[in-house]
Fold tRNA pseudouridine synthase C.
Amino acid sequence: MRNPLTVLFRDDHLLVVHKPAGLLVHRSPIDRHETEFALQYARALNGGRHVFPVHRLDRPTSGILVFARDSVTARTMGLAMMSGEVNKTYLAMVRGWPEECGEIDYPLKEEPEDRRLKGIEQPVREAFTRYRTLSTTEIPVAIEKYPTSRYAVVELCPRTGRKHQLRRHMKHINHPIVGDANHGRGRHNRYFAERFGQGRLMLAATRMEFTHPASGEQMVVTATPEDSFLEVLSVFPEFPVSGQSE
């Protein structure tokens, strides 16, 4: 069986991979029927030995995923994540044209994975996201009430790590991510799914910066979005797709 993970970096302490969209990181009470997980494929890349996921990447999101190869590294990386010492950058395609750049400061209520907890009041936590608009386009298709439809490619940098933060924050500023079934716009999602023969969340983790937990070296790991993502970005004729992995 082909391993869907692509190794981006590996040493004695870390295994950094590219995860495709549609693959769960590990077992979840929401998707009990699933039998394939990034965790098991990462173990295969680690010679069958246990690995520790040090952060979360939603199932429909593709991109950089970090595993620790030992518990000490996992603890160190986990603390770095929690203290904001790890910088993550995402690429997204959104509806409309956002401002050139900005920061979204909008607290978010916790979203429990277990549906049985949905009726219980959840805490609200601070959440910050910086964004920068990289490219815009307008296509001659009437999807809502206008004769044309506008879209943008944005760079998103979360400063906190709330569940579905980027998807919820972009909805909050009325520029939802294309392909987001829960927080997006159905008409736009259906248009791109029909046009390209497949629907996907247009969100990819493309860059991560952190201090190596053992050597202290400053690490920068990058990943070009997968083909299904780049295919949809073809509606942006001026966007330099190949440059996003730098």
Q: What stands out?
A: The longest strand covers residues 128-139. Helices lie at 38-45, 71-82, 165-172, 186-196, 227-232.
